[in-house]
UniProtKB/TrEMBL annotation:
The chain crosses the membrane at residues 64-84, 91-110, 122-143. Keywords: Membrane, Transmembrane, Transmembrane helix. The keyword Transmembrane applies. This is Uncharacterized protein.
Length: 154
């Protein structure tokens, strides 16, 4: 639990203190989208199929921070730091670097308590590493869509 609290505090502080790009409206959209997507995925992979879980297989309040405040802050960091207008090579380097950092963070979340909070059933780090590029692209596309909707004038 200690590791989850520390990570949630650090990621949220970093996300809100370093944000120079995202508007309040975009932050609300990113948080809502992330929480909804994560909980839908967790409902099936964690609860129904027991692929992974937070702390224990049961649904408990101690897993609430992992489901609600951790990943939205990470997505804010990614979108705040992503070089949208830079060269393709800089965007690829940023994307791959963030991908590697997320996989390394997940590996650290697998540590025993009090640092770790994530447990695997049949899931493994390879599955996560393979899914993260799709999730990062999804959050990039969602953000770009939000920007287009905000600039739309009927």
């Amino acid at each position: 639990m200690f590791g989850l609290i520390v990570a949630a505090l650090l990621f949220n502080c970093a996300a809100f203190m370093t944000n120079k790009r995202l508007t309040k409206n975009q932050i609300i959209h990113i948080w809502t989208f992330t929480i909804a997507l994560q909980n839908i995925v967790d409902l099936y992979l964690s609860t129904k199929y027991e692929a992974y879980w937070y702390f224990t297989k049961e649904i408990k309040w101690e897993s609430f921070p992992a489901r609600v405040v951790l990943i939205p802050a990470v997505n804010m960091l990614f979108l705040s730091w992503y070089p949208f207008r830079d060269s393709l090579s800089k965007r690829v380097v940023c994307f791959i670097s963030f991908w590697i950092l997320i996989v390394l963070y997940e590996a650290s979340a697998l540590l025993p308590e009090p640092w770790g909070y994530l447990r695997y059933g049949w899931w493994n780090l390879i599955y996560s590493a393979l899914s993260y590029p799709f999730l990062l692209i999804l959050i990039l596309k969602y953000y770009q869509w939000i920007c287009r909707v905000e600039s739309y004038k009927p």
